[in-house]
Design goal:
The complex is a heterodimer.
Chain A: H1 3-24, E1 46-47, E2 56-57, E3 68-73, H2 78-92, E4 97-102, H3 106-116, E5 122-126, H4 130-135, E6 142-146, E7 152-157, H5 162-176
Parallel strand pairs in A: 3-4, 4-5
Antiparallel strand pairs in A: 1-2, 3-6, 6-7
Chain B: H1 4-14, E1 19-22, E2 25-28, H2 29-40, H3 58-72, H4 77-88, H5 103-125, H6 136-147
Antiparallel strand pairs in B: 1-2
Helix pairs in contact in B: 2-3
Classes of the chains: A alpha/beta, B mainly alpha.
């Protein structure tokens, strides 16, 4: 008569252990949210550029020659500054990274780039933050992987770390190249 | 005065034609109540355990503005909810809809009830049966033992 409750407790314990184990290995994040954009093209938008340079629109993302990243960031955002070396390192490998500055000011952005460098192939400004809402962005930094067909394949909310690169981005880049 | 104040608040909220300005959008009292009811059902994705109505995050404020603009434009509650779900997924809903993903969540009470019945049934079944009644010889012996 005690076997059934014991078995239930054992299964529950094994479940919790698996969750904690996978969290430890950075394979499971209970706070991560799936993006409804995955499997779809980004919504229509047309954003201005920075310092007189042209911005970009959703049609520019329709068929990139190789897989690329769109990185939402802001000069006022601490995790973005932490992520900056990683973005710079990824850009050096030849991966095109297009940046969208979220609710930012040109002068603040200029001093951010003076400090951390500007790794972005193209840059656009979402001053109002309304394009971000259409993308389902809920914080910065957020990074989207767009394949050669212009389809969003991956979204990462938060700074990209070595673990995220190894377990999340690199396998997908290999798959969609 | 203390007694009057709640009365005043009630009188204000009962006039549906009076306009209010919330987060920069001007709308009637009735529209504001509808917007609040919608916002109460939506999760602020920045703080995750607060509703859009209750959160002070910038994104929540922007979403409150969008809700109010849609309410003023005369959009239905469902179309406003769909707007949010389309962008942020079902996680934005504080009350998750019934779907394959949430099946286990909604089935939990029924499963717990079945489990309870199962345990009760097992407990009943394994109960030791009472001993058979004493025959005459045993009854005599018991009486003798009790008297001595």
């Amino acid at each position: 008569m005690f076997t059934a409750p014991l078995a239930i407790v054992a299964v529950g314990g094994w479940g919790f252990y698996t969750i904690l184990e996978r969290m430890e290995q950075n394979k499971y994040d209970p706070h991560a949210l799936p993006s409804p954009l995955i499997g779809h093209r980004p919504p229509a938008f047309n954003l201005p550029g920075f310092n007189g340079a042209p911005g970009f629109s959703n049609t520019d993302l329709a068929a990139p020659p190789q897989p690329m990243l769109v990185n939402w960031f802001a000069s006022w955002c601490m995790p973005c500054a932490e992520e900056a070396p990683m973005i710079a390192q990824l850009a050096k490998t030849g991966l095109p990274i297009w940046g969208i500055a979220y609710q930012d000011q040109p002068d603040a952005l200029a001093s951010y780039f003076a400090q951390y460098g500007n790794p972005y192939t193209k840059l656009a400004l979402d001053t109002s933050g309304l394009t971000a809402i259409n993308w389902g962005v809920y914080g910065v930094p957020e990074t989207y992987l767009i394949d050669k067909a212009g389809i969003v394949r991956w979204r990462w909310a938060g700074a990209i770390t070595d673990d995220v690169l190894a377990n999340g981005l690199n396998p997908l880049l290999a798959k969609y190249t | 005065m203390l007694l009057l104040l709640p009365g005043l608040a009630l009188a204000q909220s009962q006039d549906p034609t009076q306009t209010v300005t919330r987060d920069g959008v001007t709308l009637t009292q009735a529209q504001e109540q509808r917007a609040e009811a919608i916002g109460d059902q939506l999760r602020c994705l920045v703080c995750q355990n607060e509703s859009i109505e209750g959160s002070s995050a910038t994104l929540a404020k922007q979403l409150r503005i969008i809700i109010r603009q849609h309410v003023v434009a005369g959009d239905s509650n469902k179309s406003i909810m769909d707007y949010m779900v389309h962008r942020y997924g079902i996680f934005v809903l504080l009350k998750p809809p019934f779907s394959r993903l949430t099946l286990l969540l909604y089935a939990t009470p029924v499963l717990a009830l079945i489990l309870g019945f199962l345990v009760a049934w097992l407990a009943r079944r394994s109960k030791i049966p009472p001993p058979p009644p004493l025959d005459d010889a045993e009854q005599d012996r018991l009486e003798r033992l009790l008297k001595s």
